[in-house]
Amino acid sequence: MKRLFDARARLRWIHLILGGALSMPYFLLASVFVGPFLGQANVFTSTGLQFAAFGVALPTAALTAFFPLVRPLSVGAVRALCAVPAERLADGPARSRAARVRTAGWFTLHLGLGGVISGMTLAVPPFAGALIALPLITWLRDSPLALPEVLTRAWGPALAPVAGLAMLVALAGCAALAGALLARAAPVLLGPTPADRLAAAERRAADLAVRNRLARELHDSVGHALSAVTLQAGAARRVLEHDVEFVREALTAIEETTRRTVGELDAVLGLLRQGEDAGGGLPGPTLDALDDLLARSGVKVACTRYGDPAARAPERVSREAYRIVQEGLSNALRHGGAAPVSLRIALRGEELEIVMENPLPDRAPVVRPGGGRGLPGMAERATLLGGHAEAGAHGDVWRLTARLPAGGAGGTR
Predict the structure, then answer these.
(1) From CA 104, how far away is CA 63, in angstroms rounded?
(2) Which residues neighbour 111 within 8 Å (Cβ) at sequence distance 6 or greater?
(3) How far is CA 259 from CA 97, 256, 285, 296, 390, in A?
(4) In this model, does residue 347 exceed pLDDT 60?
(5) What gap in Å lies between CA 275 and CA 263, rounded to an integer?
(6) Beta strand spans in 262-396 (E)
(7) Helical H runs in 337-407?
(8) What angle do helix axes 194-238 and 374-384 make, rounded to 10 degrees?
(9) What is the CATH number of domain 200-405?
(10) Taking every annotated instance into account, which residue ranges of this chain make up the domain Signal transduction histidine kinase subgroup 3 dimerisation and phosphoacceptor (predicted)?
């Protein structure tokens, strides 16, 4: 009995009454045509005609449910009133034919059950109230109410309150049953279709791709800056009392490196705040800024270029190439100290080649627990462009090699 009147049952009852209210315009429109068609000027004079008009109204409602926006409105009402888990319902308008057909079925079921329960809600309580009050108010016995014959007999007034309470409980039971039926049908008719699931999976994949790209940008930019700043600060500390000019240059390099990195960090975090989609371009330097990177890297770099890659490589390839070089310099600083680095960047035909070498240290480098994300991130950058990148020991040198497709070199940047 308690479940017939608890909060969930009441909310579902309200949802049914909402369906009845939505069915009224269709019912009134159908009554305009059903009455004259059956030779009656007013359908409200006959219960049969009213049911006929209601039967005609439901297919009309089903047709209007094919509009895409009907589904999100219905889903919102179900989530708020029917206690259906949100993840079992679809998001957004119905785009496919299957989704529209399911929505039309739901809309018809909601309005059909809602119309019946709403009619019962309007009719049953007044009649049940009259029955409950029948023993106390004698004039009700002679009223024009169409009371059953048994209630007019000797024991009739004593049984009337029981009959009235039974009718109210029956009404609540019908409303609870109809509400439970709608709650069970909602995930089937308003749940995601295969096309909706595919679109959601594509959105999740796009979001994950953007997160990975932003993570790589932060790692390469901030990681390189921290490595360079650490090296410059350590070198300045060692010669603090002997070479003031070197300390001044080191502090200047630290200042410029951190200022530039803060700007890049603000740009990437700005994309996070704006919810940038996967199609948006990430900000960042290109090979045009390579000279500044090498000058402030904290290590001597012998750089040779072939084919003018800064001017002719496509912008995306140029940006990823810059980050790959930056990650290579970070590894050289982290593991090789101040050992000189050789860098060759060549644009040959439709391929951009990057080769970076630095001597291996006498002592094996300390590896962070679980490994770093720099080299895998560099490989991901190359793979996403359709290229290849690898790094490893070759004799007594550490060599980084990356080959990136540069089709359309010299085109729009």
Answers:
(1) 7
(2) 19, 20, 22, 23, 26, 57, 58, 61
(3) 55, 5, 14, 12, 31
(4) yes
(5) 19
(6) 301-306, 341-348, 351-359, 388-394
(7) 374-384
(8) 130
(9) 3.30.565.10
(10) 211-276
Q: How confident is the model at residue 274 (pLDDT cuts 50, 70, 90)?
A: low
- The separation between the first and the last C-alpha atoms of the chain, rounded to the nearest angstrom, is 72
The vertex-293 CA angle with 291 and 247, nearest 5°, equals 110
Other C-beta atoms lying within 10 Å of the C-beta of residue 139: 6
The Cα 356–Cα 369 span in angstroms is 25
Q: Rounded to 5 degrees, what are φ and ψ at 369?
A: -55, 130
pLDDT single digits (tens) 208-246: 777 777 777 676 677 667 777 777 787 788 788 778 887
**Region 291-311 average pLDDT:** 85
**Continuous segment of H or E residues that includes residue 402:** strand 397-405
**Number of neighbours of residue 137 by Cβ within 10 angstroms:** 11
Flag the least confident range among 68-82, 160-174, 280-294, 308-322. 280-294
Residue 267, Cβ density class (10 Å: 0-12 exposed, 13-18 middle, ≥19 buried):
middle
Domain residue spans of the chain: 2-192, 200-405
For residue 217, the tally of other CB atoms under 10 A from its CB is 22
Q: Residue 311: what residue type? A: A
Reference 110, options 44, 190, 7; nearest CA is 190
Buried b (16+ CB within 10 A) or exposed e, 67-105: eeebbbebbebbbebbbbeeeebbeeebeeeebbbbbbb
Residue 368, SS3 per DSSP:
coil
**Torsion from C-alpha of 270, 271, 275, 276, nearest 10 degrees:** 150
pLDDT at 79: 92
Give the integer Cα–Cα distance in Å for 126 and 132: 10
pLDDT per residue as tens digits for the range 39-77: 666 766 677 788 888 888 999 999 998 988 899 999 999
The single residue listed with the structure tokens 């029948």 is 134
- Is pLDDT of 282 > 60? no
Cα–Cα distances in angstroms (integers) from residue 341 to residues 171, 259, 327, 396, in the given order: 85, 24, 13, 13
Asked whether the beta carbons of 318 and 287 are under 8 A apart, the reply is yes
CA distances from 163 to 43, 113, 126, 130 (A): 31, 24, 13, 10
Task: Indicate left, alpha or beta for 153 from its phi (over 0: left) and psi (-120 to 50: alpha).
Answer: beta
